[in-house]
Specification:
By secondary structure, the protein is mainly alpha-helical. The chain has 3 helices and no strands.
Length: about 80
């Protein structure tokens, strides 16, 4: 079994292409749930990028900005789960 070696540029290009694909797919739908999904998706990609020493902005992910719409969805989901 050989040694697997990944270069930082390869990982960056991989994450960039995944982010672009997700953005294109998100264009086919609309609504607050799509915004929440897209935000979570980008946060996951940003976490992988940071773990590999890559800036999220290098893969097309803007700095995190609070999304009031997403917070309302999350709050509603938590309230529903708690039965309140």
């Amino acid at each position: 079994m050989g040694i697997e070696l990944w270069f930082k540029d390869d990982i960056q290009n991989l994450l960039l292409s995944i982010n672009a694909s997700s953005a294109t797919a998100a264009n086919w739908a609309s609504g607050t749930h799509v915004l929440a999904y897209r935000q979570g998706y980008q946060e996951a990609l940003a976490a992988v990028a940071l773990a590999c020493g890559i800036s999220p902005s290098a893969i097309g992910i803007p700095p995190a900005v609070p999304q009031p719409t997403v917070r309302r969805i999350q709050a509603a989901g938590i309230q529903a789960a708690l039965g309140t």
